[in-house]
Amino acid sequence: MKLILLGAPGAGKGTVAKLLTKLDGSVQISTGDILRGAVAAGTELGKQAQAAMAAGDLVSDDLIMGIMGDRLKEDDCKAGYLLDGFPRTIPQAEALKVLLENMGEKLDFAVNISVPTEVILDRLTTRRTCEGCGEIYNVKSNPTKVEGVCDKCGGAVTQRADETEEAISNRLNVYNDQTAPLIGFYENEGMLLTVDATSSDAVIDAIKAKLG
Ligand code: ADP
Ligand code: ZN
After folding, report:
1. Does pLDDT of 28 surpass 90?
2. How far is CA 199 from the centre of its chain?
3. Which residues have CB under 6 Å of ligand 1?
4. Coil vs helix vs strand at 174
C-alpha cells in the first residue's frame, strides 16, 4: 500500500504507520524521524533543520523535497510506503504529485486521522519518544517498564525538544494554518479517507476496509 497519513501532531500517525507496516511490509517514512536523526547525528541537514524544529515551525519545503525525492527512490519503497508527516504544506503536496507522476507511481489514498484538540494536547504533553528507535510511549497510558529506558532497544526515552507547552501550541497553530488545507486538497483529488479516531485499531480497520 501507498498511503499518506494526515493529522494534527499527536493524532497517532506514527503509531498507525508502525501497525500498518506489519500488515504487508510497507515501510514507514517519517520526515520527523529523518530530521531528528539528522539533528542527533549533527549533519549539515540537521544543522539546517534544528532551530525551526525546536520552535515547532516547519523546515523549508525545498529541504523536505530534497530528502523525499531521494527517499522515495530507495529500494525498500517498492514494497509500499506510509508517508507520516509528509506532505505538510500545499507546495509539498503539489511537488509530491509531480514527483510521483514522473516516477510512474500512484498513491492509494490519504488518511485524515481526526482527533479532538483536548485529546491531542493531553497526548503531546505526556508523550515520550525513544531516541534510539523512535518507539512512542506515554507516561500515563503506555509507560516504559523501566523509567526512561526503551522496552524495545534499551535506548533513552525522553520528551522531545518540541514538546514544551510553547512549542506544542505553535505546532498546533502551524498545523491549522499550513497542513489542515491538505484535507481539502486530497478531497478535491478524490483520494481522501477521514477517520474519527479514538483508537489506532479503529483507524487500521477503516484503512483495511477502504483498501478492500
Ligand atoms: P508531529 O508530532 O508534529 O507530527 P513530526 O515528528 O512529524 O511531528 O515532525 C517534527 C518536526 O519536524 C516538525 O514540527 C517540523 O519542524 C519538522 N517536519 C517534519 N516533517 C516536515 C515536513 N514535511 N515539512 C516541514 N517540516 C517538517
Ligand atoms: Zn528504542
Report:
1. yes
2. 17
3. 9-10, 31-32, 35, 52-53, 56-59, 64, 85-86, 88, 92, 162, 171
4. helix
| CATH (one of 3.40.50.300, 3.30.70.20, 3.30.110.70, 3.40.50.720) for 2-26+80-117+168-211 | 3.40.50.300
Ligand 1 atom at minimum distance from 124 CA: 2
68 Cβ contact partners less than 8 Å away, ≥ 6 residues apart = 29, 31, 86, 96, 99
Residue 123 has a pLDDT of 87
Give the pLDDT confidence score for residue 196 in this predicted structure: 87
Residue whose CA is at the smallest distance from ligand 1 atom 4: 9
pLDDT of residue 162: 85
Rounded Cα distance, 180 and 90, in Å: 9
| Residue 2: exposure state from Cβ atoms within 10 A (0-12, 13-18, ≥19) | middle
Residue 165: all three cell numbers together? 507547552
Regarding pTM above 0.85, the answer is yes
The two most distant CA atoms of the chain are separated, in Å, by 48
Residue range 180-202, pLDDT digits in tens: 999 999 999 999 999 987 788 99
CA distance 8 to 13: 9
Let me know: does 110 contact 6? Beta carbons within 8 Å: yes
Average pLDDT over residues 77-85: 97
Residue 166 pLDDT more than 90?
A: no
